[in-house]
Amino acid sequence: MAPAGAGASTQPQLKKGALGLWDDAVIAVSSTAPAYSIATSIGALALAVGLAGPAAIWLGFIPVTGIAVSYYYMNRIDPNCGAAYTWASKALHPSVGFLNGWIVIVTDILFMSFAAPQAGSAVLQLLNAWGLNSIGGLDLTTGAWYANYSAVFFGVLCLAFVTYMVMVGIQVAARLQWVLLGLEYLIVLGFAIIGLFKKGGSGFDLAWLNPGAMGGWKALAAGVVISVFFYWGWDTAANLNEETEGATENPGRAGIIGMFALLFLFLVACISIQEVLTPQEIQANSATTLTAFADKLVGQQWGSLAILAFLSSTIATLQTTLLPSVRTAFSMGRDGMLGRVWARVHENWKTPAWGTVIMGAISAVIAIGSTRLGALNAVVGAGVTAIGLLVAVYYGLVGISCAVYHRKALTSNIKGFAFAGVFPVLSALTLFGLAIYLIYQDWTTSGSIAADATNGKFQVIVPAAVVLTAVPALAYAYWRRRPPYFHMPTEAAPRNALD
User: Would 322 be classed as within a structural domain?
Assistant: First the structure.
């Protein structure tokens, strides 16, 4: 949906056909950062649902898969790199699309701002594991009083590296993802399989897979929202559709392939970790669960491989989080909903280079400021919850958009009615309902508001502020930029779209 009076040929274009199906699938899996998700979210999941983490993982898989199906059907109609922004604009209203795009961008920035220091912390841990504890009298151990600042410093360097890689070309970024994913997947899966036989923590119980064992509705809601964070990121494949061969089919397929690969890895890893680590050990290492698991499993020397997997995963997810946020902003800038700087394409690299640099710089500034929010573990825990809520919102809006957009075609066949209508709507309503319930619980469990990453009200205010900041941004776009796109009528797929 190009602005009125602008032909497709006059619009900025990204590099066409640069990626194949399996490039997209690798990026979809890398974007969820399996090792990162396991390392940082198993602790939060255990705190919410105890040993029923595997149940939360497979239960959260269902609504997220419904959204993955929504992405597939919407991408078939319009392979636009704006994805969640573009499709909500077409099906519902440009203002709803703007909200969705804004949430995607700000959520990605928030994630990068606390993932970067974690990458820096992993660098320090890896250096320590390899015997390098100081340089020129500077203490590099994680026990130094300035360890958090050192982590942020190294994290910002990692962020600068991935920003450069994303800027110089999508093919370069994809090649790096193949290497990083292969490294982390082999290490994590290898440790997980060994852990199934070694034991040392809790004895396996089928109740771990039973949603009824989560401990009530509050625990169930929290567990599934955290599980949504586990899977978050596969949709990066859709944001790369304009740069992918078979743009109408491959990005959607890649997202679904990625979801099933992730379900397998997350279930095996979660069960293995609970068999090796006690609940107390999981909680004590909530931001470094994977490292603690590997150390107990094979000793600290070989356990350093887990740190390497975590570092690889974090760098991979920084890169694959930067990709969709920049391309969403690119699409919005191309439509006039954001400033034109976001839509500038580098003449040689065919990437939104300026937008990439700006997004990376904003994330770095917030990462530096996050040192004032307390210990890294607390910041990570708050970030997981806040991002899970925001992802539930924009995923849910895509699910609703899919059903609304295909409303004329839903009665054409049973398969289309089920997978482009019922499944997306039920998935969206499930995510909305869980998010609302969790917001209520978090808000009522804290007596006062405090700028503390462990404060329940603060954890609600962060995602609420992200949504609310979209209002003045939208007003500015409407009154100052006056994009023709904003006045485009909503669309509906033809009756034969699902045949």
Answer: yes
